[in-house]
Amino acid sequence: MTKPDQDRVVAHPSVAERLEAEALIVDVDGFEGPLDLLLTLSRTQKVDLRRISVLHLARQYLDFVEKARDLRIELAADYLVMAAWLAFLKSRLLLPPDPEEEGPSGEEMAAHLAFQLERLQAMREVAARLMGRDRLGRDIFARGLPERMERVKRVSYTATLLDLMQAYARIRTRDEFRPFVMDRDRVYTMEQALERMRGMIGFAGMWTDIASYLPEGWGGDPVMRRSATAATFAASLELVKEGRAQIRQSETFAPIEIRRTDRERPT
Amino acid sequence: MSDPEDTGDAGTERPRESLFAAPVMAEQERMVEAMLFASATPMTARALNDRMPHGCDAAEALVHLQKRYEGRGVRVVRVGDGWAIRTAPDLGFLMREETVETRKLSRAAIETLAIIAYHQPVTRAEIEEIRGVSVSRGTVDQLIEMEWIRFGRRKMTPGRPVTFVVTETFLDHFGLESARDLPGLKELRAAGLLESRPAPGLGAPTGPDEDAAEEPDSGQSELFED
Amino acid sequence: MSDPEDTGDAGTERPRESLFAAPVMAEQERMVEAMLFASATPMTARALNDRMPHGCDAAEALVHLQKRYEGRGVRVVRVGDGWAIRTAPDLGFLMREETVETRKLSRAAIETLAIIAYHQPVTRAEIEEIRGVSVSRGTVDQLIEMEWIRFGRRKMTPGRPVTFVVTETFLDHFGLESARDLPGLKELRAAGLLESRPAPGLGAPTGPDEDAAEEPDSGQSELFED
């Protein structure tokens, strides 16, 4: 700590400031990055940040980095990047501007750095003011015993007339086309037809329209007639297969006719 | 600390004699007000006094404060040994937030309702016969609770089963004069409602009123024939 | 205050309510008073209105109520979009028992919070540019957990980075009506310190992410422009 005056951070008459500069080196971990370090260094200039000598600041920073190197303190990469940038800035500020060269002038770069420092400083100041305000739970208080706001959830069911009608239509439609429900009353099965025809075929020596074999009461309702017709036709084919009847249709859509086979007579 | 206005009233009561005079009563009232507000539990006059500067009289401040809150939205009330700020009893309803969630009636419920509307008065057995499935108690209860159906007269059939009919509330909700205004099967079909899927372009179905006007006797009589 | 005019208004708007005129303003004030006392967190005028009978005007009632509590031990304060009742700041000394220990915030967290408050909506890269160091995840997480900051809208810049803004809880905690009332905001703006100035070409190296430099205009303006 008590290093002699061979520091390169010279021109500081006050012991306190020298100690501060020393402390900077020892306490490098305490800085929140290069900008923070620069801001701290800038305080030694004791001027408004707007009038700060960026050149001087760059020198201070570079001295700091140099020292850290001497002391074998490993600096984080961003400190070194800043050092390189400041070295570049320093050279730009010192050398007369080259009209050929592109890019920002040393003054522009310096001004921006000053802006950054001023902004960071300003943010620190307002942060302190903010934290110093009257704060809830410390200076200002909310209701200690808030009353419970009860939440009552009520479910209300609704339906439209359309819903109602569609529901009813759905039920009625189910009645009209019940494809999977065997409605025994209205279906004439082939077994029923076969039994009926077996009893009757023996008397049918003449070609007779199979429609006349339909059971009584099944001719009116179209659904029932269809069912009975289909069953009777199927039963007729069954009788033909058994060899007990013959079947014919003179032309397309003409009545289908049936009569018993003659072979049966000899038996 | 104290407002100049406040000193007017209270100042006359307690002239500031010494350097360490107790705050004026209006100020003490403010303190009690703030403490009662911020405290999580009721506070006794003593506990209030303990926190206040020397020479204060929390009990008196409480009397003033209580008077000040008379007829307000909150009141200063005694709770056991302590004092607390509480909502005025007549405003308790504001502390309840009622959220109403509207849901569609279930399919079972709407079908049951439709059958009752079209076939009323109808017994549970009849509803089941028409729907082809049993009707759950919950469904009927729900419809009764909604006041869309109610019990009708008992049927004069063996067992004298109860019947269900729709209510005024039901007619109101669906904008019907009577259950007879419900469109019949023919109108349903005309409106495309008898197709298993209503056409996508289908808007509102023809109003039951119009339909009813054209065919006054349609609907139920037709439907009741089976 | 108790106007028949109010009733008139409400009546024309809501013809069905005409039988039930809105309560007089004094009564509305009581209601707002009760609700604000009952709630520990700020409530919006809208939320208040939702609980009040039809035709009420919570916003107007709030104005009356705020006036009524001027200079009292508790005050009606605006917090962002909401309203709350809070103890008067000068009486904080009485509430030592109610004091809540706030977690000690690190310097990084305090600075980050201030930057977000004054520059909002602000991206992480912008915060890093201002502080000159990367923002640790833990810092942001802590502030989010305290509900002092939240994610804002994404920036319409390449990469559409997320932004941070301060919350109503933040405003409530620091006794601010809105982010416009942040201390020193005007001065900072006048000094140009809230502008995001792009670094001239080779800017001083800052945080790890330098994309922030590309951002043409920084938040601030968006939120604080009048």
Automatic annotation (TrEMBL), chains B, C:
Sorted UniProt keywords: Cell cycle, Cell division, Chromosome partition, Cytoplasm
**Where in this protein does the record put region Disordered?**
196-226
- Segments of skewed composition (Acidic residues): 208-226
Q: Record's Gene3D superfamilies?
A: Winged helix-like DNA-binding domain superfamily/Winged helix DNA-binding domain
Biological process terms from the Gene Ontology for this record are:
cell division; chromosome separation
Question: Per its record, how is this protein called by name?
Answer: Segregation and condensation protein B
Organism lineage reads as: Bacteria, Pseudomonadati, Pseudomonadota, Alphaproteobacteria, Rhodobacterales
